[in-house]
Design a protein that fits this description.
The chain contains 4 helices and 13 strands. It is of the alpha+beta class. The longest helix is centred in the first third of the chain and has 18 residues. It is rod-shaped and about 95 Å long.
Length: 289
């Protein structure tokens, strides 16, 4: 029985040693105010202290550090007088309306960084959710992104992704040889184009599928090379088959809202079609708008 009690006591003591740093005394200071008023700075300080307490950190009451407290030799001495085991520093910034917020854990002895996390909020009104995320990141030594939850995503993080420039274009075309038509839609960026295309004619195979092109130049006139994959059929064949399309041409008026494309192409069915060639070339003009 005595051995059992001794083992339990040893285990409890070991648990206290392990958990000791979690309950260590800590001091929180706001080192930069981002130009905000004293009331806002004190509120941010209070939020940071409360969040740390939620996670078992014993934050010391230090009224002398409630306002803005730059990290200086005087501050170092004041912190040393309190004797905390951990020091957390909040820094507020200002980028027009956005507010970069950083939380640093420094070694109280020499003020060297232990761990730093930062996050930009769309306004100071998001300070509560931002500081909560920062506290988790610093205490767990994890990237700030790992603590994102539905209720804590900031306005900056939820902004739509900025896309590279491009535009959608409707396509209406005339096949000159053999006589026919084409119609489709594509999305065109600086050096590539991707969309869908339907083309056919009375004496020509029909093609409907994905159509893409590599545009060689970003000026007003540019050559291009294209390829497509889709369904190929003809009037004489009962069932369409899978096929490809290859093309080469030039695009005119790229710097304007309306484009003109001229080129040659070849539709190649992957299986034989009744009374249809395995290689079906053509010449076309297409208007894009």
């Amino acid at each position: 029985m005595e051995k059992t009690l001794h083992a339990i006591a040893s285990l409890a003591l070991a648990s206290l040693v392990v958990s000791g740093p979690c309950w260590a005394d800590a001091v929180v200071v706001v080192a930069e105010d981002g130009g905000f008023d004293d009331t806002t700075v004190r509120t941010v300080h209070s939020i940071a202290a409360s969040e740390l307490r939620k996670h078992g950190i014993h934050v010391l009451e230090a009224p002398q550090f409630d306002g803005v407290t730059p990290i200086s030799p005087e501050t170092k001495q004041g912190i040393a007088d309190l004797g905390p085991e951990r020091l957390f520093v909040v820094r507020l910034g200002r980028l027009d309306e956005k507010v970069p917020v950083a939380l640093e854990e420094l070694d109280p002895a020499d003020l060297t960084p232990v761990f730093v996390a930062s996050l930009t909020s769309i306004s100071i009104d998001e300070a509560d959710k931002v500081i909560g995320r920062l506290v988790l990141a610093v205490l767990d030594r994890k990237p700030i992104e790992s603590g994102a939850r539905i209720a804590t995503v900031t306005g900056t993080e939820s902004e739509p992704f900025r896309k590279k420039p491009g535009e959608g274009l409707w396509i209406a075309g005339l096949r000159l040889e053999p006589l026919g038509f084409s119609f489709g839609w594509s999305y065109e960026a600086e050096s590539w184009r991707l969309g869908i295309l339907l083309q056919g004619g009375e004496d020509d195979v029909s093609y409907f599928g994905i159509d893409g092109a590599w545009i060689l130049h970003d000026g007003n006139i540019s050559p291009y090379l294209g390829a497509g994959l889709g369904i190929v059929g003809s009037d004489s064949a009962e069932d369409p088959v899978l096929g490809a399309k290859l093309e080469a041409g030039a695009e005119f008026f790229r710097l304007h809202g309306v484009r003109l494309m001229a080129g040659v192409d070849a539709v190649i069915p992957f299986e034989s079609l009744y009374e249809t060639d395995t290689f079906n070339p053509g010449v076309y003009l297409r208007l894009c708008f």
